Amino acid sequence: MIPIDTGLINQIANKARLSPRRRMNHNFHPALSDPLQRLLNVMEPLSYIRPHKHENPDKVEAFILLRGRMVVVEFNPDGSVADHILLDPLNGSYGVEIAPRTFHTIIALESGTTVYEVKNGPYDPIDDKNFAAWAPKEGSGEAPEYLRDLLMNVYRRY
Fold first, then answer.
1. 3-state DSSP assignment of residue 85
2. How many CB atoms lie within 10 A of CB 67?
3. Angle at CA 125, nearest 5°, toward 52 and 113?
4. Sheet holding 61-67, edge to edge
5. What backbone torsions phi and psi does residue 52 show, to the nearest 5 degrees?
6. What is the rounded distance in angstroms from the CA atom of residue 156 to the CA atom of residue 154?
7. By C-alpha distance, which of 78, 8, 86, 13 is closest to 47?
8. d(Cα 35, Cα 31) in Å, to the nearest integer?
9. Are 40 and 116 within 8 A, CB to CB?
10. Considering 32, 34, 49, 131, which has the largest number of Cβ atoms within 10 A of its Cβ?
């Protein structure tokens, strides 16, 4: 048995706050080759996750919110917003499943936002994510402005 409790989430959240990427994963799967990837993903606001899709191999991805608030955005192939959802337990919205071949990103709105993430494995950094050509690369000078514009576009509805 592996408990997922406040102590574990707080440990990972402390690492996320100190990380240059402003997020930290904690894997539960024993190996990257595991056919089911299970992890905690703890994020700080302004952590930029470049829009991507899981294709070739196709993978379903699910996020279940454990702490905080976040926006999940799906995109059309041209980069326009296709759909989005605010995950917020106070509003009764706890999770979402992303279909394969769907461009998406997640954006933390509160410090220590934590999701339990599940997706098909295995994990191979070469083909796990197909990044959107229309979105700036992580760490680029354009990424912070892109993230702010995206957040203003979808979050203003809340």
1. strand
2. 18
3. 55
4. 23-27, 36-43, 113-120, 61-67, 95-98
5. -155, 170
6. 6
7. 13
8. 9
9. yes
10. 49
Please give the C-alpha separations between residue 10 and each of 13, 22, 47, 83, 120, in angstroms, as whole numbers: 5, 14, 18, 31, 26
| Residue 80: both structure tokens together | 């326009």
Domain segments of the chain as ranges: 6-155
Single-letter code of the amino acid located at 156 = R
Contacts of 38 (CB under 8 A, 6+ apart): 27, 28, 29, 116, 117, 118
Select the CATH number that applies to the domain covering 6-155 from these four: 1.20.1090.10, 3.40.50.300, 3.90.1150.10, 2.60.120.10.
2.60.120.10
DSSP letter string, 114-147: EEEEEEES---TTTS-EE-TTSPPTTSTTHHHHH
pTM of the complete model:
0.93
pLDDT tens track for 113-153:
999 999 999 988 888 899 999 999 999 999 999 999 999 98
- Position 127, amino acid: D
Instruction: Detail the DSSP E strand segments found in the chain.
Output: 23-27, 36-43, 52-53, 61-67, 70-75, 81-87, 95-98, 103-108, 113-120, 130-131
- The Cα–Cα gap between 73 and 128 comes to 19
